[in-house]
Write a structure and sequence with these properties.
The chain has one domain: Rossmann fold (3-Layer(aba) Sandwich), CATH 3.40.50. Helix content is 23%, strand content 29%. Bound molecules: 1-O-pyrophosphono-5-O-phosphono-alpha-D-ribofuranose, hypoxanthine (HPA) and magnesium ion.
């Protein structure tokens, strides 16, 4: 990582950016549900990364029924088998009809594949999508190349960096 140029280090997302992009996702989904007037009945966030976008979308869309499904598939940047640690009330979920399932991003598509198998009729939405995972997502805002690592604001802190041309 340390001998890469700044633009090769990854795609760094600020809080402001994820807020704007999550709002854009909500607006794109507005009125596209199967209920009256295109309503959605609930939002399910895929923890942990989906929680911030799901909260922002729930607020934009006026949805108060918000639940989580807990999946763990990465340890740092290494992917293992996706494990479902907890899931929403089965009576509320049914086959997923009318439920918006939200995550921060789709990369290999493995996480969404697991959730899709549980709720085949839910609508799957992510803020960011890499090409491999795109077939697993119904709606996303920004496409990112497969070899880019996305850094989210909850994983970062402001810190000093050396000037690009080095110290004087
Ligand atoms: O499409 P995939 O290759 O499955 O990758 C995408 C998933 O990986 C990350 O979650 P992670 O499992 O790291 O957990 P976290 O959300 O708790 O950070 C990200 O938030 C997505 O949920
Ligand atoms: O690019 C990524 N950034 C953060 N978390 C991730 N989990 C899978 N891919 C990514
Ligand atoms: Mg996640």
């Amino acid at each position: 990582m340390s001998n890469q140029l700044p633009h090769e280090k990854g795609f760094h997302i600020s809080w402001d950016q994820i807020h704007r992009d999550s709002r854009a996702l909500a607006w794109r989904l507005d009125g596209r549900g199967p209920g009256d007037g295109g309503a959605w009945k609930a939002i399910v966030a895929i923890t942990r990364g989906g929680m911030a976008p799901a909260m922002i979308a729930a607020r934009e869309l006026g949805i108060r029924l918000v639940d989580t499904i807990s999946i763990k598939s990465y340890d740092h940047q290494a992917q293992g088998d996706a494990q479902v640690l907890s899931r929403p009330d089965p009576d509320m979920m049914g086959d997923g009809t009318g439920v918006l399932v939200i995550d921060d991003l789709v990369d290999s598509g493995k996480t969404l594949e697991v959730v899709r198998a549980l709720y085949p009729n839910a609508h799957f939405a992510t803020v960011y999508a890499k090409p491999k995972g795109e077939p697993m997502v119904d709606t996303f805002i920004t496409g990112v190349s497969q070899d880019t690592w996305i850094f989210f604001p909850w994983d970062m802190a402001l810190q000093y960096v050396e000037p690009y041309r080095g110290k004087d």
